[in-house]
Design brief:
This protein has 10 helices and 17 strands. It starts with a strand and ends with a helix. Strand 1 and strand 2 form a beta hairpin. It has 381 residues and is an alpha+beta fold. The strands form 6 sheets. A 5-stranded antiparallel beta sheet has the order 8-7-9-15-10. Strands 1-2-6-3 form a 4-stranded antiparallel beta sheet, with helices on one face. The chain binds flavin mononucleotide and the ligand C=C(O[C@@H]1CC(C(=O)O)=C[C@@H](OP(=O)(O)O)[C@H]1O)C(=O)O. The site of flavin mononucleotide has 21 residues, from helix 9.
Length: 381
C-alpha cells in the first residue's frame, strides 16, 4: 500500500508531504530531490513569488543515514514568504488585515467561501493555491528514486502554450530526454514564439494555458489491471493528472484523436522478433491496454487552463458588499505550463509508484527488485 498527503498554506510557515509505503532500503539522494524542486520553480511567465522562494526539502522522518526504513517519510518545504505574511497568516490571535472579498472567476474563491462558511476569501485561496504543488514535487521526487531503482524513467515536454504548438512529428518517446530549456519545450523555434505569446499576454494583463506530455520509459508489462475499475492504470494516471490545479483535460496515447479514425488505423499491430519477443511499430495506445502497461512508453498528455488571476481583472462579485466589482488582483503567474509539466511528472511518478508497489510489494527494496526480476524472467519466457 502506497499513499501520500500534503498539508500547508501558500503563505503559511511551510508545506509538508507525508509519504507512506516506500520500501525500506531505498537510497535517498537529497540533492536530486532539490533539483526537482528547482525545476518546478523555473519557466518564463512565472510571477514575483518565484524570486522570493528557493524551495529546499528537509526530510523530517523515515530516512536514516540516507536510506529509507519503511517508515512514513515526512518532507518539509519552508515558505520564505511567510515572514512577510505573519500578520495575515498568524496561527492564533485576532485578524488585523482587510479581508479579501472580490472573488476571482476560475479560482476556488467563491465556491470555497460558500462551502466552508468563511468570510475572508484568503481562508480558501491559501490552500487552493498551487503553491501546494511544491509538496507534491517533493513527494514525487522520492517516488522517482524508487522507480529509478526499478529501471523506470519519467520525462516531460511542453507541446503547446496559448495555441503556439511545438513540432511533435517523429518523437522517439522511448528515448525522449529531459531538457533544461526555459519552457521545457524541445522545439526551440516554437519555444521562442511561446515566449513572445507569454510576454504579450503579460503586457495585456492576461494569462495563458497550454499542453504538455509526460512519458514513462522502460515500464514493465502488466502493471495495473483490467480486473477492477480502480486498478486500471489509465484511471490512476488520469486521476493523478486531473488532481493538479488548473488541469482540465487528460489523454492517454492518441486520446481524443481516437474519435477521428477507424480502428484499422489506430490499434497497434503486434509482430514477433526472431527470438519470439513481441514488438509494435506504433504506440497509439500510449503504453496502456486493458488498464495495464503493455511495455511501450506510457504517454500522458494534459491541458492546463489559463491562470485565473488576471492583472486586467474580470467582472465579478464582492461577497461582502454584494456589489458587482472587478475580481481581486493577487500577485500571480502569467503562465505556469512549464511548472505544471514538472508537477505532472511528479504525479505520474506517484501513481506509477503506487501501481508498482501494489504489484511487487513494499516491505524492502531487496524483495521488490527480486520480485520484479523474477516476474520479468517469467514474462520473457
Ligand atoms: C504550477 C501552477 C501555478 C499556478 N499559478 C497560479 C497563479 O499564480 N495564480 C492563479 O490564479 N492560479 C494559478 N494556478 C492555477 C490555480 O491554482 C487553479 O486554477 C485554482 O486552484 C483553481 O483550480 P482549478 O483551475 O483546478 O479549478 C497555478 C496552477 C499551477 C499548476
Ligand atoms: C507559489 C506558487 O505558485 C502560486 C500559485 C498561485 C495560485 O493561486 O495557484 C498563486 C501565486 O502565489 P502568490 O500569491 O504567492 O504569488 C503563485 O505564485 C508556487 O508555485 O510555488
Amino acid at each position: 500500500m502506497f499513499r501520500f498527503l500534503t498539508a500547508g498554506e501558500s503563505h503559511g510557515q511551510c508545506l509538508t508531504a507525508l509519504v507512506e509505503g516506500i520500501p525500506a532500503g531505498l537510497k535517498i539522494n537529497l540533492d536530486e530531490i532539490n533539483r526537482q524542486m528547482a525545476r518546478r520553480q523555473k519557466g518564463y511567465g512565472r510571477g514575483g513569488r518565484m524570486s522570493i522562494e528557493t524551495d529546499k526539502v528537509d526530510i523530517l522522518s523515515g530516512v536514516r543515514f540516507g536510506e529509507t526504513m519503511g517508515d512514513p517519510i515526512t518532507l518539509r518545504v519552508v515558505n520564505k514568504d511567510w515572514e512577510n505574511w505573519t500578520d495575515r497568516m498568524s496561527v492564533m490571535g485576532t485578524p488585523t488585515w482587510t479581508k479579501v472579498t472580490a472573488a476571482r472567476p476560475g479560482h476556488a474563491d467563491y465556491v470555497g467561501i460558500k462551502k466552508y462558511n468563511r468570510e475572508d476569501i484568503r481562508d480558501i485561496l491559501e490552500r487552493s493555491s498551487a503553491r501546494e504543488t511544491a509538496a507534491r514535487v517533493a513527494a514525487g521526487a522520492v517516488a522517482r528514486q524508487f522507480l529509478e531503482a526499478c529501471g523506470i524513467k519519467i520525462v516531460s515536454h511542453v507541446i503547446n502554450i496559448g495555441g503556439v504548438k511545438a513540432n511533435t512529428d517523429n518523437i522517439d518517446y522511448a528515448n525522449l530526454q529531459p531538457n533544461d530549456s526555459d519552457l521545457n519545450c524541445n522545439d526551440a523555434q516554437a519555444e521562442a514564439k511561446m515566449r513572445e505569446a507569454i510576454r504579450d499576454a503579460g503586457q495585456a494583463g492576461d494569462t495563458l494555458g497550454g499542453t504538455f506530455e509526460v512519458v514513462v520509459q522502460n515500464m514493465p508489462i502488466g502493471v495495473g489491471s483490467h480486473i477492477q475499475w480502480d486498478k486500471r492504470l489509465d484511471m490512476q494516471l488520469a486521476g493523478a493528472m486531473m488532481s493538479i490545479q488548473a488541469i482540465k483535460g487528460v489523454e492517454i496515447g492518441d486520446g481524443f484523436d481516437y474519435a477521428n479514425h477507424p480502428g484499422s488505423q489506430l490499434h497497434d499491430e503486434m509482430f514477433y522478433n526472431e527470438d519470439k519477443t513481441v514488438y509494435r511499430k506504433t504506440n497509439h495506445a500510449g503504453g496502456i491496454e486493458g488498464g495495464m502497461s503493455n511495455g511501450e512508453p506510457i504517454i500522458v498528455r494534459a491541458c492546463m487552463k489559463p491562470i485565473p488571476t488576471l492583472m486586467t481583472p474580470l467582472h465579478s462579485i464582492d461577497i461582502e458588499s454584494k456589489q458587482e466589482v472587478l475580481a481581486c488582483k493577487e500577485r500571480s503567474d502569467v503562465c505556469a505550463v512549464q511548472a505544471a509539466s514538472v508537477v505532472g511528472e511528479a504525479m505520474v511518478a506517484l501513481a506509477i509508484t503506487k501501481a508498482m508497489i501494489d504489484k511487487f510489494g513494499s516491505d524492502c527494496m531487496v524483495d521488490v527488485l527480486q520480485n520484479l526480476q523474477a516476474y520479468n524472467k517469467r514474462i520473457k519466457g
